[in-house]
Design goal:
The protein has about 500 residues and is of the alpha/beta class. Helices cover about 35% and strands about 15% of the residues. The strands form five sheets. An eight-stranded mixed β-sheet has the order 6-5-9-1-10-13-4-14, sandwiched between helices. The longest helix has 18 residues. The radius of gyration is 24 Å and the shape is globular. This is DUF1501 domain-containing protein.
Length: about 500
């Protein structure tokens, strides 16, 4: 563009603004803090009494088999021997039920889906079925995407974006940034955590570390990642033994360097410094090191004592899932510095044949039954039952629990006992928080071929979690109106997400 054309255009814009024309166009995008609700959208937000205080997300790594768990439609696949019937007719489902000593009918009616089909809960979620109070606060969202490999599907479900997208960010970064910018108490423990297992050898290759990605957020937004069954390195780092008694001098020296760089970024020593993302990340890292004592004060040693576990006749020397759940409840219910978001990567009591806890290519029924029922049983052990009111346990009025997985399993068999990857229709589950008995149910539906006929997008599931905390999810760092099918405005998108994913109707 020629300089005179640019100036002519700029002059036109200035004149238009000065005349009062186009003021509404310019006023629509006023600068706001991240997550701040625009005035015109305040009426679309969840009422305060429905908002959650925090989120516990469990990422069921590997791909949960929906037919025996959260989305069993007995009327589908009977003639073809697929979906629920694939391993029911072969006897493998019953064998797994017997091995795990589940009591009660194989399936239990739950709710009608968006096509009016009767959705049941399957036998592998028996611990959930044994808690009617929790079932009354449960909503299933049928989701879909088209990425079959773990390496692409995991980032899509954890971040709502594909790999390489500049705004690709885990949910924890959104939450960490939002609360850090509003309640930035010096020396405070993090607002977001990611809890993993040292035994999950697929973590680096399958992109599960997407859970701590920050996208376009500043470095300070990164959640703290912890391997609960290998915390020795973390505790030794928090002790800062390499600087010994010189910690104060070291921290002052680092701050001195940072201040000098800030000064170099100011024009002739005046005004604010230029933006420098890398310097911001260095400053955040330095601050975290200086405040290591605050983190070690929250991560109490008893939560890192290794414990064993057993389920369905199998034993594990280290039960990382139970350890992680105990630590998560402690972090979320901490009396002085509670976390706002904790994500646990669930790799199962014992790993599946394909990796993770649920990647069951060779043997589906028993592995899924053992790992999923174990996770649900241990989860519900840290959730208050009616009348319990234990301050150390999770309160479903205050905590939204999200059960996420990268995809489901094929409606047809793989080999004689397994199932392959299936991203074309699978459940994401919301429990508690804004989900009340009036919102219990199912959004979406799958057809005879197992493909979703009505589905939510991965972005909608991420947006629902943010909205449950009162965080406006529309920004360049997060999501767009186009991520919500059928929406034309941000307000309309927020209302649709809350209705579909959380069962809340304005």
């Amino acid at each position: 563009m020629k300089r005179r054309d640019f100036l002519k255009g700029a002059g036109l814009v200035t004149a238009t603004a000065a005349s009062g024309l186009g003021v509404s166009l310019w006023g629509m995008r006023q600068a706001r803090a991240f997550g701040e609700v625009p005035k015109e959208a305040e009426g679309a937000m969840l009422p305060l009494e429905l908002q959650a205080e925090n989120i516990l997300e469990i990422f069921l790594y590997g791909g949960v088999s929906q037919y025996e768990s959260f989305y069993c439609v007995p009327s589908l696949g009977e003639a073809s021997g697929t979906q629920w019937h694939a391993y029911l007719k072969s006897g493998h489902v019953q064998a797994a039920v017997d091995q795990c000593a589940f009591q009660g009918p194989l399936t239990e009616p739950f709710a009608a889906d968006s096509m009016g089909q009767a959705v049941h809960l399957g036998p592998f979620v028996m611990p959930l079925r044994e808690r009617p109070d929790v079932m009354e606060r449960t909503r299933v969202s049928v989701s879909a995407h088209d990425l079959e490999p773990h390496e692409g599907a995991i980032p899509m479900m954890l971040g709502g974006r594909g790999l390489g997208h500049p705004a690709f960010s885990g949910l924890g970064a959104h939450v960490q940034r939002y609360f850090l910018e509003r309640f930035n108490t010096p020396g405070r423990a993090p607002y977001s955590y990611a809890l993993m297992s040292n035994g999950a050898n697929g973590l680096p290759t399958d992109n599960v570390r997407s859970v701590v990605s920050i996208g376009m957020h500043p470095g300070a937004a990164r959640p703290l990642a912890i391997k609960v069954d290998a915390a020795g390195d973390l505790t030794s780092l928090l002790a800062r033994g390499t600087v010994g008694q010189n910690r104060a001098q070291y921290d002052a020296l680092m701050q001195g360097y940072i201040d000098r760089y800030h000064e170099r970024l100011r024009w002739r020593g005046e005004g604010g410094p230029l933006r420098a993302p890398r310097l911001g990340e260095l400053e955040a890292a330095s601050s975290s090191i200086a405040n290591a004592q605050a983190i070690s004060g929250v991560l109490e040693p008893q939560f890192f004592t290794k414990i064993g576990g057993s389920n369905c006749g199998d034993n594990a020397g280290t039960d990382a899932m139970t350890m992680n759940l105990k630590l998560a409840a402690h972090l979320l219910r901490h009396p002085t510095v509670p976390a706002r978001y904790v994500c646990i990567v669930d790799t199962g009591l014992l790993s599946a044949d394909g990796g993770g806890g649920y990647d069951t290519h060779g043997e589906n029924s028993f592995t899924q039954a053992r790992n999923l029922s174990h996770t649900l049983r241990q989860l519900l052990s840290v959730v208050n039952a009616p009348g319990e009111n234990n301050p150390a346990k999770l309160d479903l009025d205050k905590t939204l629990i999200v059960l996420t997985t990268e995809f489901g399993r094929t409606p047809f068999k793989q080999g004689s006992q397994g199932r392959n990857h299936w991203p074309y229709g699978f459940p994401v589950v919301f429990i508690g928080g804004p989900v009340r008995p009036s919102g219990k149910g199912v959004f979406g539906a799958c057809g005879e071929d197992g493909r979703a006929t009505v589905a939510s997008t991965p972005q909608e599931n991420r947006m629902a979690a943010l909205l449950s905390l009162g965080i406006w999810p529309f920004a360049q760092e997060s999501f767009n109106v186009s991520d919500v099918p059928g929406a034309t405005t941000e307000v309309e998108a927020a209302l649709l997400v809350q209705k579909r994913q959380l069962g809340v109707v304005a």
